[in-house]
Predict the structure.
Amino acid sequence: QVQLVESGGGLVQAGGSLRLSCAASRPTFRTYTMGWFRQAPGKEREFVGAISTNGISTYNTDSVKDRFTISRDNAKDTIYLQMNNLKPEDTAVYYCAAHSSWSDIRTPAYWGQGTQVTVSS
């Protein structure tokens, strides 16, 4: 079992930045592919991006590719989602997720509880 705890959400004005963190409970964290998802009100949960065990990242949509950056610190069992130039449409609950397989990260085995990000216009 892997427990994931997100933090760093909040209210920010459009154009601002936030950095979300996700701390994992297991020392084998470095063997897991990690991902970020988000769910906006009235919409389905959306895959934002993922980072492999060796730090290679991928992003789902062009809308976040040049604004969001995923990174990981295996020494701290933590991943990050740096979000810059935020837009109102980025408003959502953001979830951290984990899977032991890179190819299966879009159907994670483990989820965090989510953290709210609200971007005002």
The mean pLDDT is 93. The two ends are 40 Å apart (CA to CA). The chain has one helix and eleven strands. Residues 48 and 60 are 5 Å apart (CA to CA).
